[in-house]
Specification:
Blueprint (H helix, E strand, L loop, with lengths): L4 H25 L5 H25 L6 H26 L6 H15 L2 H4 L2 H25 L6 H27 L4 H4 L3 H38 L9 H15 L5 E9 L2 H8 L1 H18 L5 E4 L4 E6 L4 H22 L8 E9 L4 H18 L4 E6 L5 E3 L15
Parallel strand pairs: 4-5
Antiparallel strand pairs: 1-3, 1-4, 2-3, 5-6
Helix pairs in contact: 1-2, 1-9, 2-3, 3-4, 3-6, 6-7, 7-9, 11-12, 12-13
């Protein structure tokens, strides 16, 4: 196959039509996608189809009227490319600004009504290529600064779009330097061949990468669901244990103490029966939010079961562990009080233990479990704190065990 402009144009048109079909198939049949991904796939499919139609009309320049091969062709390319750019913005959860690209495309038609503009290949090139360059740079900016999920495929799309922009800049600079009077005369030029090769590469990558982005996001959501509690967003048992074990492995040889706190919400089932399941679920979310807001960033937290939460504190001591548990329980009680106008109180049984760094996590967790059981026996809203020695012996720490749940004392 000879690498000439007609062949490259044919490949470009085929690639764009194929990309449109691939995006449409993913939109129709890919089962796991969020609304932003679905909308972006639809926009990419339509945009690629319109751009393919425009490219086909450009390739027929000289054999069909200029109204089709120039005005309609570039109108379709501007709209189609705009939809692709907007589709990426929508995928990232941003506004697509499709209306802006519609204005640009309509502006193209209006300018073509003026003979000085329509008769100048340089002016037409500068307008179309300039719009494509600016919209491409917008995609690059989004890929690197608005990619909150840190998707690698999205970053690769940014690099690919940068190559595409380089192709547009290359063609525009050559046209302004050489001042080729018409597209038909620029068609066989070497710089046009380089431009089309660059464009073909970027189009092929643009077909692959958006699909990869949808798949990567789905896989990322799968991983999050596998390690997070869906209701509260806290790490589940497996994720907490893995994180805690990793931290202990890194710090086992270091002198010091770490603290484990277990929180058991004893009355959630009663609340759900009395006020409905949504109220019980809301209380779990409330406690999770209190944990996220009040715990230090260095702590490791998680949800072990439906009504049981856990926290690992680094560099702990009896006062710090007791104060942290007390503050969490009090602020949760205050939230319940405010949300129910003082009608709802939920007790929390707390078992906590301070352990040397050399103590295995399972032993510390076992001691904290015993603390929860003892807390339940002692009454409502109790904190039972243990000290664990290096030899494995456990003794109950001295100090206050109850915490207030009244609004007056909960701050």
């Amino acid at each position: 196959m000879q690498l000439d402009t007609p062949t490259l144009f044919a490949c470009l048109v085929i690639a764009e039509f194929a990309g449109s079909v691939i995006f449409l198939m993913f939109y129709l049949f890919w089962p796991i996608r969020n609304p932003d991904s679905a909308r972006s796939l639809a926009m990419w499919s339509l945009g690629m189809f319109l751009a393919a139609c425009g490219t086909l009309l450009v390739a027929m320049r000289g054999t069909i009227p200029d109204a089709f091969s120039i005005i309609a062709a570039n109108f379709l390319i501007l709209i189609g490319t705009g939809l692709r750019r907007s589709g990426f913005a929508v995928f990232l959860g941003l506004r697509g600004h499709v209306w802006l690209f519609a204005i640009v495309a309509v502006g193209w038609i209006v300018l073509c009504l003026f003979p000085p503009f329509f008769d100048s290949f340089v002016m037409r090139t500068n307008y179309v290529q300039g719009c494509l360059i600016v919209s491409g740079l917008w995609v690059v900016a989004m890929a690197f600064w608005e990619n909150k999920e840190k998707l690698r495929s999205a970053r690769l799309l940014g690099f690919t779009t940068l190559i595409e922009v380089a192709g547009f800049v290359w063609f525009t600079l050559n046209q302004n330097i050489l001042l080729v009077p018409s597209f038909l005369e620029a068609f066989p030029q070497g710089f046009t061949v380089i431009f089309l090769v660059t464009l073909l590469f970027s189009i092929i990558m643009t077909i692959v990468l958006p699909v990869a982005m949808v798949i990567e996001r789905s896989m990322q959501r799968f991983r999050e669901e596998a390690t997070q509690n869906e209701l509260t967003g806290l790490p589940n048992r497996r994720a907490f244990l893995n994180a805690a074990e990793d931290w202990l492995s890194e710090n086992r040889e270091r002198p010091g103490v770490y603290g484990i706190m277990l929180f058991s919400m004893d009355e959630i089932e009663d609340v759900s029966e009395k006020y409905g399941t949504p109220m019980g679920l809301a209380l779990l979310q409330l406690f999770a939010r209190v944990m996220k807001d009040m715990l230090p960033e260095t702590s490791i937290s998680g949800q072990l079961g439906d009504t049981k939460f856990v926290v690992l504190l680094e560099e702990a001591n009896n006062d710090l562990v007791h104060l942290t548990a007390q503050r969490l329980c009090r602020h949760f009680a205050l939230g319940c009080h405010q949300a129910s106008a003082g009608k709802l109180t939920v007790s929390i049984s707390v078992g906590a233990v301070n352990s040397p760094m050399s103590t295995h996590l399972s032993r510390a967790m076992g001691a904290a479990e015993k603390g929860v059981e003892l807390s339940r026996k002692q009454g409502k809203s109790q904190i039972v704190l243990f000290d664990m020695k290096a030899n494995g012996s456990v003794r109950k720490a001295k100090g206050p065990t109850a915490f207030s749940t009244s609004r007056k004392n909960a701050a």
